[in-house]
Amino acid sequence: MMEYEIVIGLEVHVHLKTSTKAFCGCSTEFGQEPNSQTCPVCLGMPGSLPVLNKLALEYALEVALALNCSIQEFTKFDRKNYFYPDLPKNYQISQYDLPLAKEGFLDVQTPDTDTRIEILRVHLEEDAGKLIHKDQISLVDFNRAGIPLLEIVSKPQINSPEEAHAYLVTLKSIIGYLGVSDCDMEKGSLRCDANISLRQKGAKGLGVKTEIKNLNSFKAVKDALSFEVARQEGLLQEGSAIIQETRLWDTREEKTVSMRSKEEAKDYRYFPEPDLPPFVIKKDMIEAIRQRIPELPREKCSRFMKQYGLSQYDAQILTVSRETAEYAQECLRQQGVDKKIISNWLIGPVSAAANSRNCGIEDLGLLPASLIELVRAVETQQISNLTGKAVLEEMLLTSKSAGQIIKEKNLAQISDIESLTAEIEAVIQDNRKSVNDFISGKENALMFLVGQVMKRTKGKANPKVVQDALRRRLTDA
Ligand SMILES: [Zn+2]
After folding, report:
1. How many Å lie between the centroid of ligand 1 and the Cα of residue 78?
2. Which CATH class for the 417-476 domain?
3. How far does the centroid of ligand 1 lie from the alpha carbon of residue 59, in Å?
4. Span from the CA of 47 to the centroid of ligand 1 (angstroms)
5. Which pLDDT belongs to residue 249?
6. Gap between the Cα atoms of 153 and 119, Å rounded
7. pTM here?
8. What is the dihedral of CA 250, 251, 255, 257, to 10 degrees?
């Protein structure tokens, strides 16, 4: 059996979150009445002229800089010609030989690998309309035609479906931090095509690749690539040729199916867009945009590890989005509670509450100071850990403070030995056998006795205090 190496390249398209389209003033708002957001420019009427949206250009540059790309000083737009019903002009304004940015990289981590994936190019283009197929008819909605689209192309340096998944998660996280796209795959604001080929381990050249389209979730990317690895490996093992083609991922059947043989760039008859003059991106504009880039997830993660003593795993979870990280930071800044304990609360019960509500921890309406009050009540053993979780739920439901809930529901643990002595004595009287078992060395018997005291106090005694008191009382006796 031959051993193969997987070679994957990803082409990601991201909608930029501008309020108007790339080359006209039409609104980009999602979910509006079909064809209500169109004008002569985005409908490709003769005589209409495109004007570049400055914000779309700035957003594009911001992403390119965050991906460590070098910005090309001189750039231009080109027409990519093809005929399809969702493309009113019969060409797409895109960029061909002089893209906005080139030669960047993205550091991607999986549980087993930490790889730098090089970015080949980043360019700005416009989206096409949307076809809706219904029974025997097809409808077209041009609201999406002309929405600014950023294309980010990686070099074929990704070596597993897991790494491809991690690349997308990392890319989405960075773009989310920049706030230039909502990267919502369901709404089509992030789309991904994947190229994949196999080559004999150690070989230099690339094998014949297939391109997979219709990947509409991160899971679909991983599943489709895993399927394609197995399919190509099967063909190579039996000595069959791989055909260079575009394949579609069928989510229901969980397999890729052949769609068409791959077109080459020359089929698109690219030529410079005559309605948009080439332009120069000045150094001071690039520097001004560089200044806007916030602390990105990877740096924030290392800072959280260093500043708050968190593990990499914890820091990664808490920095997944800018909003989550800002909330976590507010909590971690609070004084008087160990950072690791706060982090455990955020990753544990608080995240669980957010997940069940389908939101981020920052959307729960829980003030950092309120959370800390609760954590402190548990840490000082005013309430048990289990009660603490119940109090958290109650806080989220009622917006009352932890202290208020503990008082109103009389949840405080009894930690004062004086108030527990009577119960402890009663348990000793009633359970002579267990007492003797403990005295003759059976440690387990003590836990049974603690359990009895807990029962008599309806769970309100502080188990640690009871255990210590019982041990002292029985060892002295
Ligand atoms: Zn328009």
Report:
1. 19
2. mainly alpha
3. 20
4. 14
5. 87
6. 6
7. 0.81
8. 10
CA of 46 to the centre of ligand 1 (A): 13
Q: Could you tell me the distance, in angstroms and rounded to a whole number, from the CA of residue 157 to the centre of ligand 1?
A: 38
| CB-CB neighbours of 28 under 10 Å | 23
Q: How far apart are CA 294 and CA 66, in angstroms?
A: 9
Q: How far is the CA of 32 from the centre of ligand 1 (A)?
A: 14
Comparison of pLDDT for 155 and 31, the residue scoring more: 155
What would the DSSP string read from start to end of 52-119?
--HHHHHHHHHHHHHTTPEEPSEE--EEEE---TT-TTSEEEE--SS-SEEEEEEEEE-SS-EEEEEE
Ligand 1 mean position, distance from CA 143 (Å): 8
Residue length of the chain: 477
Ligand 1 centroid distance, CA of 56 (Å):
15
Q: How far is the CA of 182 from the centre of ligand 1 (A)?
A: 21
pLDDT in tens, 332-360: 888 778 888 888 999 989 888 888 888 88
What is the residue extent of each domain of the chain?
4-289, 297-408, 417-476
Ligand 1 geometric centre to CA of 31 (Å): 16
* Structural tokens at position 271: 């030529």
Cβ neighbour number for residue 184 with a 10 Å cutoff:
12
